[in-house]
Amino acid sequence: MLAYLRIEPKTRYNLGAYRLYRDHMSRIASHTLSATALELWRGDRCLFTELNLTVSTGELLQVTGANGSGKTSLLRVLTGLLPPEAGHVRWNDEPIHRARAAFHESMGYVAHRDAHYDDLTLRQNLMWGIGLHHDIESRDVDSTLEALDWCELADVPAHALSAGQRRRLSLARLRASGKSLWILDEPLTNLDAGARVWCEDIIEVHLEQGGSVIATSHQPLCVRAPSRREWAIST
Amino acid sequence: MKLWPTMVRQAGVEWRISLRRFGEVMNPLVFFLATVSLFPLGLSPEPDRMAGYATGVLWVATLLAFLFAQARQFRAEAYNGVLEQLALSPHPLALLVVAKLVVQWVILTLPLLILAPVAAYALNFPVQGLSTLLAALTLATPTMLALGSVGAALTVHAHQGGALLTVLVMPMLVPVLVFGARATDLASAGSAPGGALLWLAMLAVLSVSLGPFVIAAALRQSLA
Known about the structure:
Chain A has helices at residues 19-26, 71-79, 100-106, 122-131, 138-148, 163-176, 193-208; strands at 32-42, 45-56, 59-64, 86-91, 94-95, 107-110, 181-185, 212-216, 227-232.
């Protein structure tokens, strides 16, 4: 826990004034994701049973647990990709399978796999990825690239990026998609020290503006959150 | 949230990727031409006998080329996580799939419609049946693509997906083959092929309207 308490004030990275992001944040509504009595099996192994959790506006929930304990599976259940054996996930008191479009409009997921088209350039990837979730114009992509300080990489194909850069691109895409709930699977993986601070900063700003975050992480997340909880999956 | 621009953008992405991998995309058509040109060597190069089996060869070659083209459908997307993001978009997955398939259909079918008359000419196929052949191919290919994609979506995580795909999809494509070959035969013999063409059109309407929803359901299942 000590690692979360940074003594020196953090120097904020240039987060850029995303038009999209600000617009969205000015009208972010309070929201709640709640899971009740979740149960999930993989093969003949029970990953969790009777699992209850709630995340609402401004909250950070960090899920910890050993490799293979089911953190990613839990996140996939919460996104609605993986149906649980028992229990419900509710978005604002509505089961997510019934309010799928509304839920997915407000929830963004950065998975272990980056979801970039290798053959497309960064600009085309962002255009596609943000556009899946949000009405978009090309200047939104420009401002995202500017905020990453990657204007010179705009026309580089995604396969030329390093693993850490791909991860940053996914996070930047999520940020520009204007979601209120972020579900992050190991967001700090492959990031260098500077990018790690950048990632923590965007999470912090997101929480300050009324968003919520569920993240799995082996490294401690140095984030000041209005409300943060840690939840360990036991094997 | 506007659906239409998203579909157009998805189609654009598909188009760019196909152009980037032009050789790979054209492979099924090379396969089509190779199959068609090998039959006369194996059976008989006599013009009269060629005209007898031309219809069957053209249809079987088309069917195999389409199956061949679909063997790796959705694999890359499933592997790099793009499929997850598509499934998590607020837009219906079925309509994003439609955007993808429309582009694939154009990229596969237009060259096929240009190559088919050449192949038909090489097989001594009667000229009076040519327009019907092209019409029947235009009507049959959407069904082949939709049903092939259903199979590909179901087998996207199977290790031996290619073989499984053939076994799954082949029986479903039999009606397309039967009616397509029948229409072409009738037209080349000088009779009216209307009935068989209407059957092909009906199959196309069915598979194009319902297929995307089945594909989307199968893809969501594959992500679970």
